[in-house]
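Ex. 9. Protein: TolC family protein.
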Amino acid sequence: MLVNTHKLLVIPLIFIGWNTVQAQEVWTLKQCIDTAQVYNKTLQINRNHIRISEQREKEAKANLIPKVTANADYKYFMELPTQLMPMNALNPQAPEGQFRDLQFGVPHNINANVQLAMPLYNPQVYGAIENTRIANELTQLQFQKSEEQVLYDITTLYYNAQILKHQLDFLESNLINTQKLLKNMELLKEQLLAKGTDVSKVKLQAEQLNTQRENVHNKYISILNALKLNIGIPLERNITVVSEIEQQTLTENNVENILDLKIIQTQNKLLNSELSTLNKSRFLPSLNLIASYGTTGFGYDKTPNDFLKFYPIGFAGLQLTYPLFNGTVTQRKINQKKLEISNNELQAQLIGDKNKMETENALRQRTIAQQTVINTENQITLAQSIYEQTILQQKQGTATLTDVLLADNALREAQQNYLSAVIDYLKADLELKKLAGTIKN
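Predicted structure tokens for TolC family protein:
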């Protein structure tokens, strides 16, 4: 029930199978949410996504650290490389334009070295670092979005369970009333003051209430199972929900703080950062420090002149790379990013307008539902009073069974209208919190 309204009379359970409900743990909505923060698997997956994003940012920064590699190779030349030497290089009398083929080197060649490379300035590396930083912010916002959705689902399931629990209470109350009426009708029949069809009508109504109660109870169990799945606790654990439905004060909505808009704005930052990186890589050079130190070995295996000798080799220097032309690939990527940024800005405007419209609709629906709840509560009280008076009149012979059944139907209709109004209120209130980004509060 809503706080500050009359509470339903708690009806004792009349079937043994229903006594197990009393042994269930009563979980508050806050308890469900706090437990889900730890055990919900969707949130655990998204936390891992945040850790992955953090590692990607560290990976991008690691490209600034010097890279050291060790290299080694061995080559055996079955045929030595051939070079052409001008004949007048050794004999000035030889005519120009004539060459002699010579084979240089030895068949065994061994190389081993250690190389160092460190970027001094690379626009792509610095751009990647900035991009991964913004992407990490985006991942954290997406985690918050996922967290909001999980809390929204849990709250919706919790409210549904509360509504079904109230519906079960109503059905229990109606069933008790019907069983009392059935006893009265059976007594009147024994006294020849009622027809057998009258008794059958009341029996039919009792059976219909029993069937309806069983269906509602099955729905209630299904909702609880879905709630336990979202919380992350075993399905075998017996829990139930608090009966009271609290009516909370409406919080002010701030469109600028909604999470969807923050995500779009962060995506815009990422797109602009990627565009900036493309522009820089298009016009700015890359400068790297390179160094190498190693040895080169030459070997000959024909006796008696066989040998294996090693000679050191080392160097250090700078390597400058400047892009001249890459087939307009970068320009095409820049054009794509500009279009993506344009779509992103349009999407931000659309989200803002949509949020404003949905907030106004939800606020209006919440106000109407809140008033309807009050009206239907009064209708239940009035219908209950009419039903009791009609029962009394029926015992006194001034009201027929039809009058009693009509009063009973009116009571049940008032109860259903009340539950529908509560559902509308809770739905609108939860939607407002989601739109305002305050659902975690």
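Check your answer against this statement. The longest strand covers residues 286-300.
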